[in-house]
Amino acid sequence: MITPLEHLSRSDRLERFFIDGKWLEPRGTAKGIVVNPATEEVVTHFALGNREVVDAAVSAARRAFVSWSRTKPEYRAGLLNRLEVLLEARSELFAQCLSLEMGAAIGYARSAQVPLAIAHVKVAREVLEAFPFVKQRGNTAIAHEPIGVCALITPWNWPLYQITAKVSPALAAGCAVVLKPSELSPLSALLFAETIEEAGFPKGVFNLVNGDGSGVGSALACHPDVDMISITGSTRAGVAVAQAAAPTVKRVAQELGGKSPNVILPDADLDRAVSMGVAAAFRNLGQSCSAPTRMIVPRALLSESESIAGRAADEIVVGDPLSTASTHGAIANRAQFDRIQTMIGVGIAEGATLVTGGEGRPAGLNAGYYVKPTIFSEVRTDMRIAQEEIFGPVLCLIPYDTVEEAITIANHTVYGLGAHVQGRNREVVKDVASQIRCGQVHLNYPAWDPHAPFGGFKQSGNGREFGIEGMLEYLEVKSILGYF
């Protein structure tokens, strides 16, 4: 099978931007690099955009919006269906790409990163097919209309998943988009743009500009012809985008950082609750904003929880992302690898009990951004490792004495993105969930629901993605009196 790099090199995509339905050569000489996290080697270069390229992309989107916003929902749904089919056909190419550019274990790329991304396209189509764009309220029509040109900024940790989570509902709503993926994971975005092109979307409806935050992200955030900007990233980046967007009063949707709690109630099935909690925290090597990396456990069960958590961590196989024997691959980039190592050192210095893992690479891995799955216990909620987003496989076990204290601990961060609650008494579980200040709560490890809205309270951002609420973000509300 042809590799992602061979495919993109043969088609000359690495040196181009997709604007107005064409693959355009760069208007500058700036280049970005793609580093293989498993080897730390530079594997390719790609063109970086600038303000001139952003202007061209936004102008193309503005022109396309005029007619695209007037198309029938059935037409847009048909194109989304075509996109879904093509993504399915290229799923292995995307899986190989994600493994190369951000270190995902190939098995996880195949079973989660790619299929969950495709699910967002399907959901957007399903929502579109059933969505009432005009409702009657007395003699007034309540109409939902596309907001306009949307700039979409996506991260490196779930590259394809976050692209489809933003692009699909925006296109379904009738918006035209300019996508700026992370400069650390540009390859999957180039493959996605090719798929959009083959699906037959009209020119200018989707535009791709690779680039960094200072060169492309800031230009999009302050651009007067961009009506909305949606960003998934760090809280710091979200604040910068909101500040840049403020003078033009554009809509800003932010899905930002998290430090999600996992409350283990006294009556929970402890073995299941803790072992599955470790798996959830270390999913994608902990590089998920909603990863439940604070496990809040009854003090009387702390020792037993440590033993269960340690055994669960021992089952993790960190290694070559392209090996099917590896359950977890490499951390996506050097900066994040260094951040994780620093925070593990902080946890040790703060006096937390190291259950397993620690600083340095796992045994036998002398190169690559590999990290030991690390679990701390006896963590106090005022420690840095309990407050700061580490974005890696580092789990904190925090003891509590009463359920009321557990809820207080769960809410004791500046974040409010996700949470988990485990217990046998469903009514108590639901009551605890109702008191946690966050945008999404998982009770007893349910199946993933792509229609469930996702987003944050507090410094985890605003707005929602997924499902009906995800598409509503890209729509304006117009009331037309005397319509009926």
From TrEMBL:
Q: Which UniProt keywords apply?
A: NAD, Oxidation, Oxidoreductase, Potassium
Q: Annotated Gene Ontology MF terms?
A: oxidoreductase activity, acting on the aldehyde or oxo group of donors, NAD or NADP as acceptor
Whether NAD counts among this entry's keywords is yes
Q: Taking every annotated instance into account, which residue ranges of this chain make up the domain Aldehyde dehydrogenase?
A: 25-480
State if NAD is listed as a keyword. Answer: yes
Q: Which family does it belong to?
A: Belongs to the aldehyde dehydrogenase family.
**Protein's name in the database:** NAD-dependent aldehyde dehydrogenase
* Gene source species: Rhizobium leguminosarum bv. trifolii WSM2297
